[in-house]
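Final report, closing paragraph on structural work. Over the funding period we assembled a curated collection of sequence-structure pairs, and we close with a single example.
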Amino acid sequence: MYGNCAVILAAGEGTRMKSKKPKVLAQVLYKPMIDWVIDSVKACGLDEKDICVVTGHESAQVCAHLPQGVQTVLQTERLGTGHAVMQAADFLRRHGNANVLILNGDAPFMDGETVSCALEYHTRAQSSGTVISATVDAPTGYGRILRDAKGDFSGIVEERDATDAQKQIREVNSGAYWFDCQALLVALDQMQTNARYRANAAKEFYLTDAIEILRGMGQRVTTFNSKSAHVVLGANDRVQLAALNEIARMEQINLHRKNGVSIPFDAGVVIAPGVKIGRDTEILQGTILRGATVIGEDAVIGPGSVLENCRIGDGAVITQTYGTDAVVAADTQTGPFARLRPGTTIGENVRVGNFVEIKNSTVGSETKISHLSYIGDTDVGSGVNIGSGCATVNFTGKEKFRTVIGDNAFIGCDTSLVAPVRIGNRAYTGAGSTITEDVPDDALALGRARQVVKKDWVKVKKPYRSKDNR
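Its predicted structure, as stored:
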C-alpha cells in the first residue's frame, strides 16, 4: 500500500544561468539545489520510492544525478506548473487517497520542518489542498495570498493581475503545496477539459488553477504560513544563485555559532550543510568545510584550510591544510601548506609541517614529518622522525607498492625509500640515502655515493674569475 508522496518540478532549462547543466543542478553551498529539496522531502518521512521528479531539458543529466529509487517523468513541452504535474498523473493514481507534496526543484530553502508542519496542519484541517505561504518584506514578483474578512484563505492573485492594494500584501505563495492525491487528479482533469484554463496569454496550465477548481467544488483549501521567508527563494541566474549561497552560508555559520563553535570572523568561511563541529572549536578566516566532515571539540581549523569528508579529532590544529577523505586524531598539528589526500589516517600528537603531502597512508602517534616530504602508500609507526625532503617512492610507472616504517625510526633528510621496502623499529637512514632494501631493527642504512674531494680543483680548472663572469 502506498503512503504519502512528493512530486518535484525540475523541468526548467535555466537558460539565464548560461550553463550546460539544468538549473536544478546549480549548487548552493556545494550541494545541487535539487538535493536540498530531496533532503527536505525525506525529512518529512518519505523515501526515494515516494518521490517523482518531473524532468525536461537535459533530463539525462538530472536522471543520472538522482538517488536510486527516485522515479522520473518527462515534460516534453513547458506548458506551466499544472502541465508538469499532469505528467505525474500515473504516479499520483498509484498513491490512492494519500497526500502529495508539490515542490519546485530550484527552491532549496523549503526545509523539512516547514513541509512536515504543513502536512500536519493539512491533515488536521482535512484539506483537499494546502498552500505553503511565507511573509516577505519584498513581495514583488510573487502571487499574493488573499483572505476574506474572517482571515480565511480566499484565493491567490498573480502580480500581473493584482490591484494596487493587493500588491501591498506581503503574504505570498511559495509555489509549494500539499494536496489530496485524488482531489488533485480531479482538478488536473478539469484543467484539461475546461478551455478557460488555457485562455491565458501563454496558453499554459497553472497549478494555482487547481486551487481555484477545488474551492469551486466546495473543497476545503487552506494555507500554512512558514516561519522562514527564505522558503520562497529560488535562482534564475548566477546573480540570484550567489545571493542564495550567501544566505545559506551565513545561516550555517550562525547555526554553528549557536551550537558553541567560535567563528570570530566569517570572511571566506564556508561550511556546507551536514558538517559537524564540536564545542569550543575555532574556525578561522578562509576555511572551507565540505561533505561529511566531522570536527571534534577544542580544535583550531584555519586560516585557509579546506577539508572535505575529513574527521578531525579534539584539540587538533589544522592550518592552511587541504584535506580530502582523511582522518586526523586528537592534538595533531598540520600545516601550513600541508596536503592530506584520500586514505590518510594520522594518529595523536603528530606534527605534519609545511609542504608535506600524505596519501593513502597511516601515521602513528607522536610522529614528526616536519617539512618538504612526500609520504605515499606508507605505514609509518609511532615516534618516527622524518627529515626534510624525504619521499617514499611508491610508483614504478606501472605499479604501486607500499613502504613500512617501524616505530621510533629516524629517516634522515633527503632519504628516498624505494618501495616495497621496510625500515625496522628504531632504525636510521643517513641523510641523502636512497634505500632499496629492507633495513633491520636498530640498524643504520646508508645508500649514497662515497664523497670525493679533489684538492686545488678550482685553481687548476678556474684559474681566474672576473667580477663580470662570476
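The chain has nine helices and 40 strands. The longest strand covers residues 171-180. We thank the funder for supporting this effort.
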